[in-house]
UniProtKB/TrEMBL annotation:
Methyltransferase found in the keyword field: yes
Pfam hit, one: Methyltransf_24
Entries under InterPro entries matching the protein: SAM-dependent_MTases_sf (IPR029063)
Name of the protein: Class I SAM-dependent methyltransferase
A single GO BP: methylation
GO molecular function: methyltransferase activity
Record key words, sorted: Methyltransferase, Transferase
Organism superkingdom: Bacteria
Length: 234
């Protein structure tokens, strides 16, 4: 991990420096009453949410990967299970008790259907305060498709949607020709939206150019020809 973060947040986490800096600064500025994280894994980003939030709900299906230092995060309520089942129950509980959620990080199931399900379930929340939602890996084609599959115009509390709040990376962490990282952004407000909603893709051109150079494109078009992967790895 970069020395810029290791002293304050020692648990390793799989994000770029830009993503780490953005997450830290934003959550610090919001100082949430309650945060929700979907996809905890080893707890890298969770340590940030725990540090700056009064309370955190952390949802994950693989608790065995959690770093032992997560036991020190006393303000975290760990919810184990498939987010498609856990999140609806949590949101129903939050709405009923009128808990004041202010930040949500979606970084769980990275399939198109999984991302869409998490967004759909999360956006059933009633915003009593402004809620910032970060969608990690918005630069990944499957995740991006899932993000774009939701009809945001039908939710009157959604005021802003940006798929490229932080741009993703190509070949990140040595993943050959793969597109990962990036933060998408959704803003919920307590008051209902008046103006028409536009879903923004600030780096759409970059995404498309990178996609046609990526292994994701070749897998989609030529997945039946497995030997072709050897050609593109030369």
């Amino acid at each position: 991990m970069d020395n810029l973060f290791v002293n304050k947040f020692p648990i390793p986490w799989s994000m770029t420096r830009a993503e780490k800096s953005t997450l830290i600064q934003l959550v610090k500025e919001i100082n949430p009453e309650i945060s929700i994280e979907i996809g905890t894994f080893n707890g890298g980003s969770l340590q940030v949410l725990s540090h700056y939030s009064k309370k955190v709900y952390a949802i994950d299906i693989t608790p065995e990967y959690r770093d032992a230092r997560c036991k020190e995060l006393k303000n975290v309520d760990f919810l184990i299970g498939d987010s498609k089942k856990v999140v609806p129950k949590l949101i129903e509980k939050i709405n009923a008790s009128k808990e004041k959620v202010e930040f949500i990080l979606i970084d769980g199931d990275h399939t198109t259907k999984g991302v869409l399900a998490d967004i759909t379930n999360v956006l059933k929340i009633i915003p009593y305060l402004p809620i910032t939602i970060f969608l990690h890996d918005s630069f990944n084609p499957n995740c991006r498709k899932g993000i774009l599959s939701y009809d945001y115009s039908k939710n009157p509390y959604v005021h802003n949607v940006e798929l490229d709040y932080v741009t993703g990376a190509f070949n990140h962490d040595g993943l050959y020709r793969e597109m990962w990282g990036g933060f998408g952004y959704i803003k919920l407000m307590p008051e209902k939206r008046i103006k028409p909603l536009k879903v923004s893709q600030y780096q759409e051109k970059l995404f498309k150019i990178t996609y046609y150079k990526s292994i994701h494109f070749y897998r989609k078009c030529f997945g039946f020809l497995k030997p072709i992967y050897k050609v593109f790895k030369k």
